Each structure stands twice: as structure tokens, then as C-alpha cells.
Amino acid sequence: MNFTNSVVGKRWMAFAGIVWFAYVVFHMVSLLNFHAGKEIFNDFYTWFNQLPFYYLMVAVLIFSLGLHVFTAISRQLANNKSKGVGNKKPYPKEIPRVVAWSGASTLLMFVVFHFVQMQLLDQTDLHQQLLNIFTQPIMLIVYVLGTITLSTHLHHALSNVLQTLGVSSKQNNPWVVLIVLILFFGFVSVPVSIIYA
Ligand code: HEM
User: Fold this and answer.
1) What pLDDT, in 10s, does the model give residues 71-121?
2) Distance in angstroms (rounded) separating the CA atoms of residues 84 and 101
3) pTM
């Protein structure tokens, strides 16, 4: 048994996932500043982006995303190779493996695309940049799709974490559903407010 398929590998994968979950909550709450107007939004990001913490945060996010994806792929490959049905890790029947992996891959592509797109923007007026982005229908589709795949991925992941901790055995824990819905509507509120402005 190698590192990625061991309990230690699984713990690191969960830890990297928790780091990202914390960032996603923080990111969604920060983005709500968008509804407070151009000045407050731009001032917040001008202040935040020059903090040494910002560079540390981006480095931790890149490293933990790499670790999470690498461990997930290695575990899946090891699981595929396991001899005999008895050794294979069962997958929830309600989510076919191909659906879970397509969703996770779409989410990964969205995160990479979004990260690069944000780094290339003119940071002097981020508010205007978002207005420019979300008046393009293709960008609306990309961002809504990215947020949907994030929600489904989180729903599955958070339910698993609660099951592992022995807190809840349900796949549809109401707290998980509530957290996922709050994140989904929080993110989507930005493009939606631009379309209906
Ligand atoms: C409609 C939804 C979203 C909007 C409007 C949005 C907007 C933004 C903006 C304006 C920035 C640049 C901030 C800066 O200059 O520092 C940013 C950065 C970033 N976003 Fe998003 N975002 C959205 C959804 C997401 C989602 C769902 C994820 C991850 C799952 C994500 C991950 C990131 C990352 C990793 C960065 C770079 C780090 C940072 O600057 O905070 N974003 N986003």
C-alpha cells in the first residue's frame, strides 16, 4: 500500500479539501462586498491584495489543490487496479463514478481558468472588470457552471466528512444542504446583480 492509498493519504486529501472549503467561504463572503458598491469593493481588494498574507494564501491554495487532485487520482487508479471485487472501494450507487469525475474535472478546469483570468485583470478597478466579464453570456455560463459543480462537489465531500466523523450518516444532511445553498446563492448573486442592474 502506497502513501496516496493509505489512511494518511486520505487524511491529507481531506485536510487539503478543508483548506479550500475555508477559502471558498471567505471568498464568497468577501465577494458580497460587490453589493456595497464600487468604492468599498475596490478598496477591499486593493488592501487585501497587497498583504503578505495574500501571497501566502495563494501559495497554500495552489499546493493544497495539487495535493488534493494528485491524491484523488492516485487513489482512484489504485482502486481500479485492486484485484477482485472484494478489494475495490464501493462507490455510492446514486452517483456514478463517471458523473463524479466529470463534475470534479469541470470544477478543476473552472478554478484554473478563473484564477488565471483574475490574475490577468487590471486590478485598479476590479468592480468594472467584473461588470465587463459578466455582460458576456459565455462568461455567465462558465461561472454558473463552475458554481454548480462546486456545489455538487461540496455536497458530496461535506456529507462524507460528516459520515467519517460519525456526526451524520445521511447523504442529505440538512446542514450540508444549507451551507451549499448559501455558498451557491452568494456566488451567483454577483453575476445575477449585474445582469439585472
Ligand atoms: C460568481 C462567482 C465568482 C466571482 C464573481 C469571483 C470573483 C473573483 C475576484 C474578483 C477575484 C480577484 C480577487 C483579487 O484580485 O484578489 C477572484 C479570485 C479568485 N477566485 Fe473567485 N470568484 C467567483 C467564484 C469562485 C469560485 C467558485 C472559486 C473556487 C472554487 C474561486 C476561486 C478563486 C481563486 C482561487 C482566486 C485567486 C485568489 C484570490 O485572489 O482570492 N472563485 N475571484
Assistant:
1) 999 988 888 887 555 555 555 556 778 888 999 999 999 999 999 999 999
2) 22
3) 0.91
Taking the centre of ligand 1 as the mean of its atom positions, its distance from the CA of residue 168, in whole angstroms, is 31
Domain that holds residue 19: 7-81+109-195
Nearest alpha carbon to residue 25 among 184, 190, 161: 184
Q: For residue 171, is it within any domain?
A: yes
What grid cell was written down for 185? 446563492
Q: Which residues of the chain have pLDDT under 70?
A: 1-5, 83-94
38 within a domain of the structure (yes/no): yes
Q: Which protein residues are within 6 Å of ligand 1, measured from CB?
A: 24, 27, 31, 45, 49, 58, 61, 111, 114-115, 118, 123, 126, 130, 143, 146-147, 150, 187, 190-191
Number of separate domains in the chain: 1
One-letter amino acid identity for 120?
A: L
Question: Is 68 a member of any domain?
Answer: yes
